[in-house]
Amino acid sequence: MKSRREFFKSAAAIGALSAAGLPLRATENKIAAPTMGDDRRYWVATAEKIARPVLENLARRELIKQMPVEEKTGAKRAACTYLEAFGRLLYGLAPWLALENLAGDELKLQQEFRRFAQQSLDAATDPASPDFMNFITGGQPLVDAAFLAQGILRAPKMLWEPLEPRVKAQVIAAFKSSRKIPTPANNNWVMFAATVEAALLEFGEPTVPARLEECVRKMLGWYLGDGAYGDGIFFHFDYYNSFVIQPMLLDVLTVLKNHDVAFAPTHALVLKRARRYAEIQERLIAPDGSFPCFGRSMAYRFGAFQTLAQITWLRELPEHIKPPQVRSALTTVIRKMIEAPGTFDAHGWLQIGFCGHQPDIGESYISTGSLYLCSAGLLPLGLPPSDEFWSAPAARWTAQKLWSGENLAADHAIAEGAKAELPSLKLK
């Protein structure tokens, strides 16, 4: 009988996720797409390989002791890299942790990681813990407090409700302490303050309007059309509409809508824009699973497709984009990146790079912890195995169809202008 870990490794095809994290030859990227059953096993195995070093060590209160810190020379990112790793990992893994009615080896693995996640929330916020994390010093902790808050918002039944009152109080105190970090007024950072406040609102705590309603209003005011927001008043040709802007807007407005139905029209408008942006993202994936590398933060790897992954998880894909074609596309992207030589070090920690180990692609704010934002590409693991996303046969995605000569309808911008009126953001 194979062990649980051996089961997931064998399902990942051609030893892509070996226990030692040994690099594969470049030619081994050129492998046939797995069957539909193997796709989910591969994604789960990928999630385990990425997450285990972080959550297992943090649950034992040994993350700072064990995690290496790769960074630009002199960047001094150790003060924030551990919260980066934890917050970013948890917000990508949360939908899978929350999923009910799994079975067999996947259920056993999920239960193990649920325990790790809950223990890690304690370890990260307990002032007596050797892994007590920095939520105050410098600007970066605001970013990753927001990612951690977003993870909890995505899986409250697993990442909030079961926590002891002591741990809940610690988490709330940590989030409140991040208010000491000023909110930059002119870029996507407004969404970090808003996401922390949205979590506090959900926890029954008073919020700071300047860090919630006002920040959301600013972000909405930077909409430029056809599903894209500026990063401030200017458009940046990068993936921040997917790394931060659209996913956080959706999650924050979901909280606001749940507290006051007056926010429903704004939520619907933001969802419409996100669906269009997800549609564009699906078209960016080339027939071989490659995609353009441009703009900041490309060391986040397939986290670049968070908006597509989130819209898929929410079952909100445009009607002409079928879930199995997204699964096939994203699986090919993930395999290409995860199997690139040097993606992991010898101990299983992620290394800086886009496709493999490419330290120079990391900006001065990139360190080992930053890289775990890639987990955002795994959000569809929150769909059950019976969902069409997993159960339907593999399908060609848009670029494969077009480049094979299939006759497809023309693509068009959404019929909604950048000057659309937005309702006032004010809680009752």
Task: Write a structural description.
The chain has helices spanning 4-11, 36-59, 63-66, 78-98, 104-125, 140-154, 156-159, 165-177, 190-202, 213-221, 240-259, 264-284, 306-313, 323-338, 388-391, 398-403, and strands spanning 223-225, 228-229. It is mainly α and 428 residues long. It has one domain: Glycosyltransferase (Alpha/alpha barrel). It has a two-stranded antiparallel sheet with strand order 1-2. A hairpin with a 2-residue loop joins strand 1 (223-225) and strand 2. Helix 2 (36-59) runs parallel beside helix 5, helix 2 crosses helix 14 (323-338) and helix 4 (78-98) runs antiparallel to helix 5 (104-125). The protein is globular. The chain starts with a helix and ends in a 25-residue tail after the last helix.
The low-confidence runs, each spanning 5 or more residues with pLDDT under 50, are 1-36
- Strand content is under 5%
How many domains, as an integer? 1
First and last CA, distance? 58 Å
Q: Give the CATH class.
A: Mainly Alpha
Number of helices: 16
Radius of gyration: 20 Å
Please state the second-level CATH architecture: Alpha/alpha barrel
Oligomer class: single chain
- Round the mean pLDDT to the nearest integer and report it: 91
Task: Assign the structural class, choosing from mainly alpha, mainly beta, alpha/beta, alpha+beta, or little secondary structure.
Answer: mainly alpha
Shape: globular
The ordered string of helix (H) and strand (E) elements is HHHHHHHHHHEEHHHHHH
